Amino acid sequence: MTSGEQASHRAFLDRYYRLTHHVYDVSRRYFLFGRDGVLDRLLASDWTTLVELGPGTGRNLARLHRRRPDAALGGLEASEVMRAHAARRCPWARIQPGFAEDGDIGAVLGVPPQRILMSYCLSMFTDPDRAIGNARRHLAPGGELWVVDFADLAGLPSGPRRAMRRFLAAFHVEAVPDELLDRHGASHVGHGPLRYFVVARFTA
Ligand SMILES: C[S@@+](CC[C@H](N)C(=O)[O-])C[C@H]1O[C@@H](n2cnc3c(N)ncnc32)[C@H](O)[C@@H]1O
């Protein structure tokens, strides 16, 4: 990803989120499924440091903070509009500007995080392979990367499936194929109802 491609991706994100960030959480409740299940699974193990890539409005970080107030939480966010919004909402978190594909994730909290979260952002990244590789490289020893995102929607009838895919493509979103997760050696891959979403875990 060249710096020109990064600049144009950021410009797209900022244009899009400048218009939508006020209503983002309310509207996304109806189609970003599986996020709370992944937060529950994250909170089922012991860790004290977590970085979310593409934290958006900070919705997931806020929920994690409520349930684990002593943990050090951070984010790496490509859109300046979203970064500023999340920083206002989550003053206790360190939310840095940067791209998942090549950002210095270890610098966000000053230590390699024990957990990294990608929630509905892998499907938006311009280079998902690089982003997974970059995240795994930055994990603390024994750490875990968790992904939740759109899957192939194979359980939907073909008409609604095609319509949903067109809708997602209009926002530069592409369903995450299992093949991508398998190629990177995910230690767990599971799907939500109708294969609407996928949850994957990677180890360091
Ligand atoms: C659909 S939103 C999801 C927000 C949040 N993770 C959630 O679950 O509500 C995707 C987020 O990823 C960010 N993003 C997109 N591409 C990115 C990249 N290459 N690096 C870092 N963040 C990126 C977007 O700006 C946006 O905030």
From TrEMBL:
Keyword tRNA-binding in annotation: no
Entry annotated with the keyword Transmembrane: no
Keyword terms, alphabetized: Methyltransferase, Transferase
Record's signal peptide: none
Top-level taxon of the source organism: Bacteria
Pfam families (UniProt xref): Methyltransf_23 (PF13489)
Molecular functions (GO terms): methyltransferase activity
Gene Ontology process terms (BP): methylation
InterPro entries reported for this sequence: SAM-dependent_MTases_sf (IPR029063)
Protein known as: Class I SAM-dependent methyltransferase
Species of provenance: Paractinoplanes rhizophilus
